[in-house]
Design brief:
This protein is α+β, with helices and mostly antiparallel strands. The protein is built from two helices and three strands; from the N terminus they run E-E-E-H-H. The relative contact order is 0.26.
Length: 73
């Protein structure tokens, strides 16, 4: 099962990540594990040899993910 992880306020410099509860890992997409926005994730996802549909991830996202902004470091 894939879980959405909200990183805002965690001072990582990024806004979200994914966690795979079956393999107990943060998946890597094109070398990245953390993302700023949906567009950032989508770009890295498209370059990744994946099995899951991107729509599976989209449905797990809160609305704010689709707005581009960067957490202050």
């Amino acid at each position: 099962m894939i879980r959405f992880i909200d990183l805002r306020g965690q001072h990582t410099g990024y806004n979200f990540a994914w966690f795979d509860t079956v393999r107990y890992i943060f998946p890597i997409f094109n070398g990245e594990q953390v993302f700023d926005s949906w567009d950032d994730f989508k770009e890295n996802y498209q370059l990744h040899p994946h099995r899951d549909s991107i729509e599976r991830y989209r449905k797990l996202c809160p609305d704010w993910v689709f707005i581009s902004f960067k957490e202050e470091k």
